[in-house]
Amino acid sequence: MRTPPEVSQVDFASAIAEFKRTVGQEWVFTSDADLDLYRDAYSPFLNEPEERIASAAVAPSSTEEVQEVVRIANRFRVPLYAISTGRNLGYGGSAPAYSGCVVVDLKRMNRIIEVNEANAFALVEPGVSYFDLYRYIQEHRLKVWIGCPDPGWGSVIGNAIDRGGGYTTANYRNHFDSHCGMEIVLPSGELLRTGMGAIPKAETWQQYKSGCGPWIDGIFSQSNYGIVTKMGFWLMPQPEAYLRCTVSLPRYKDLGPLVETLNYLENSRITSGFPDIASPLNGYPPIGQLQLWNETGPPALTDEHLKLLASATLGYSANREAYGRRTGIAYWELWLSFHGPMEVVEAQWQATQRRFAAIEGAKFRVVNRVALPIDPTKAEDYHEPELGIPSLRAFSIGARTPWSPTPSKGHMWFSPIIPRTGAAIIEANRVFSAAARDLNMPLFRTFTMPACFWERSFIFILATPVTEDPATNKRYREGFKKLIEVGGQHGWGEYRTAPVFQKTVMDVYSFNNHALQRFHETLKDAIDPNGILSPGRYAIWPKHLREKQS
Amino acid sequence: MSRHLRAAGQASAAAVLVVLAGEVWTPVRAQDHPDPYEAGKAVYTRWCAPCHAAGVTHPGTNALTVKYRGVKPGVLLEWQDLQAVAVKFVVRHGISVMAPFRKTEISDQELDALAKYLSRNTPPT
Ligand SMILES: Cc1cc2nc3c(=O)[nH]c(=O)nc-3n(C[C@H](O)[C@H](O)[C@H](O)COP(=O)(O)OP(=O)(O)OC[C@H]3O[C@@H](n4cnc5c(N)ncnc54)[C@H](O)[C@@H]3O)c2cc1C
Predict the structure, then answer these.
(1) Contacts of A68 by beta carbon, 8 Å cutoff, 6+ apart
(2) A391 lines ligand 1 (CB under 6 A)
(3) Does residue A400 fall inside a structural domain?
């Protein structure tokens, strides 16, 4: 049997016995074969000594069992690491941040406690996946949409507390922002409810976010201060119609005005669906079309276009722009979507066109004009998560396809937040493509467009492959860290990262001699004095391990 | 006001879920179906179909089509030589970008049923 560091075999055996008594023999895992299932399948340390691995796993089925597991862990000083569905691929999978933790696997806690159509909210447990919640809503014919990330098998709670994002409207696609009310087992084993849930007979737990007094929900995301056992989410009332349109712009210099106009329209809620910026002339797809490109191949380009793609600086060359003019291929193409009554979305689209018409040569196209709900058998015609429908199509990224015959072993997401301006897109391309070239990392095929998950910033996402070759993985790992540091030098930081990079990322957030980090540690010492919960998550270490890490 | 409470425990236990994206699902009692593959089918539909059902929109199917280039079908359900032991191995070890499945997702018993279902066309050796 594996043993956590700093825990005696006798103590660990006692803890395991108590875990078994609490959750049942079959839900405690200690064999190597069973624990291999808790490895991060996309780990850049695959099969290397630094790979983060668990010493055991325990799968409680209720909040009471979670409390008891936490109390036992305190008694024997056994480190725990909680996961909901453990599908955090690209950001750490189901492996702990600190090797030797006992993974608390919450997949069995899969109750959908309530879905309220009249006020559009849900209350769920951590094991509930987007597929589960979607199916439940379909089964009960409720007229609400969920906001889901690309992979539908993830946890509504797990994704939100890792601060993931989806593709519906601005109010709902930031999954942590759209939550309302949490129930948390604290590292002491005590149960806490936030917001209105702190009132014993609460009637509005999922209807008013902050309750009264300090609003503490944020500290339970990307942290190790508690195990979340319930969480409420605001759902989107099913819209009447969906309008998907594009705005095409002919010149390189139009990128700045494009972003400025988009910002005005989105921040005014004239458009609120997921905006998606492509560059047809640079051969860069909108995210929403990526799965289609993977499945049926990217659009064919002429030899002349291909030649032009090979010779440009930061996505620009005069020849390329002239070629676009001649052939009608846009430099930039902004995909917008509108949700609401047909007459409202049509009016929003009209206003959108009026604003963009100020940019010379702007062209407009309606891609889909759909009355909702769509026929479910037609869901594949769309990027499903934009209609609140979970799927696994995004795994075409990295999988074997006719256009990518050598599959990858996974990927690590490099995802810094950059300003929402055209200039920042160009600057991020300049900075990171130069760094990637120096580091010999194959991250840039052409000019890269950022993702518009969040309203007032971009995420400049680059997928770094994981391979079967340790030497290549080492080069990419070290390169990844360098990219984080380079971003930090420009004032950019990751929105989220895998445990192996969390220290490097948090080191970028160093204002005033790491005041933020020190505050996190102060909280950790107060909330979790024995340091049993998820040590090292987001570089927050309990006192007894802190010095060893630096 | 429509208010829906679900007190029952594990969704997967008694009910067989029809789960293809977009399809309406209905709980079905196991004893209504004498089909020996019912349990395996339920696991397949819940966990495998989103990647392995027919059509290029399923990354698993697309990958297998390219990998076997006509020698074997891309759709797993159509294989005539899939061994139960191979099913179990891939589910627990993963392959390419497919991550393994934990026992809290697919239990050993469910995996047995799945392997039996996916190898139903395979002649015994
Ligand atoms: C091809 C591909 C596409 C992707 N697209 C997206 C996307 O569009 N959007 C996106 O956001 N992500 C995306 N991801 C990343 C990831 O797969 C998802 O975010 C996924 O939902 C996260 O895994 P999970 O939901 O199972 O969370 P989990 O793995 O369960 O949780 C994530 C982490 O949160 C903590 N945690 C979880 N539950 C608890 C709890 N109850 N209490 C305390 N701590 C807890 C743990 O530290 C855990 O490691 C993508 C990944 C891939 C491979």
Answers:
(1) A22, A60, A189
(2) no
(3) no
